[in-house]
Amino acid sequence: MSVLVVGISHNSAPVQLLEQLAIDSSGLQKLVTEVAHTEHVSEATVIATCNRLEIFAEVDRFHGSVEELSRLLVERSDLRLEDVLPHLYVHYDDGAVSHLFQVASGLDSMAVGEGQILGQTRAALQLGQELGTVGPALNTLFQQALRVGKRSHAETDIDKAAPSLVTAALERAGAAVGQVEGLRVVVLGAGAMAGLATATVARLGASEIVIVNRTASRAERLAEEYGGRAARLADLGTEVAGADIVIACAGARGVLVTPDMIGDRPVALIDLALPHDIDPSCADVPNTTLIDLATLAEELHASEAGQEVAAVRGIVTQEVAAFLAARRQAQVTPTVVALRTMATTVVDAEIARLDGRLPNLDEATRAEVLRTIRRVADKLLHEPTVRVKELANEDGAISYERALAELFALDPEAVTAVTRSGLGEQ
Prior knowledge:
Layout (H helix, E strand, L loop, with lengths): L1 E8 L5 H6 L4 H12 L4 E8 L3 E8 L5 H10 L6 H4 L4 E4 L1 H12 L10 H16 L4 H20 L5 H17 L6 E5 L3 H12 L4 E5 L3 H10 L3 E3 L4 H6 L3 E4 L18 E5 L16 E5 H10 L1 H54 L5 H29 L8 H8 L4 H10 L5
Parallel strand pairs: 5-6, 5-8, 6-7, 8-9, 9-10
Antiparallel strand pairs: 1-3, 1-4, 2-3
Helix pairs in contact: 5-7, 5-13, 6-7, 7-13, 8-9, 8-12, 8-13, 12-13, 13-14, 13-15, 13-16
């Protein structure tokens, strides 16, 4: 069995597509239940946020499962599967573990390092537990992901990464249009990064904040929270023409801000979106300064915040390696236990045979013979069982536990029985 992830997020799709796939609590429960009842799936849950929708499933086969989970992810919307497929991503087995650890640590968030994703990851685990769709595999994986996320926030200042990105952008903008205080700022988008940008310019004393978003209700909520004003996407050109600073965080497919929208006044355009929200040719318009992620990323990498991101990546890499090593050893343990059980059975049979042939053997001699036979069996098995656990941690196509089972002709049912008993988790 292996973990499969089929998902879509701000990294792979435009905001308007994510909005069409948005899911409420009842729809989320239905999706998890349907995934769990899919052929080849034994466990399932879903992480659902405004910027991502990801199915996590424990499956016994890859092909077939990907197609079915992709269909279930899309079918609740009015979208066609073929229109969404280019934006879906798939992670399998080791890759799925790495992806979840990065998500829980905030490395995959639109606002890098934001802590809200930890609660959303915990909510996905709790939902699966309540519905009975999360079993030992996903429970262990998600619990470890939560520990990795907590460790990342406790041992680093990853929380400062996204604010540093916005602050660095505004500092560069200040050289062109002056400090934020008293300026008119237009924020394009209403997601996590847009919320962070809005909070920052509000704190710095912007005279007016205008939130422009495709979904009016989200723009209104964000504007109300920071004393700003919501505007329609259709009015974006007018809003940009009168702005001192434009911060674009929508991540739409296709540019939203074009050169013809820019007025005669000096303006700083900050593009924090992937893909770009602002046409790069806007940089050629007089009195216009364009600041994009590529430029900011270089500064961030060299900054203290960039070092924190690198530190979290190191933690995630370390934790993924440890988790996979423990999982591989756990997969070997049932075979080792079954082998030792078989050896014990052989020893017991030989002692019974000895009792039949030498019924008058005194107890002291019988006990010494039994200890000797057991020591021989233990010594013969020690090296193979130690080595198979060591080899399980090495990358490669060889299944050493399967080879061990074949060499000693172990009954597959005996190995399965050990796994069911829980001894394989020790």
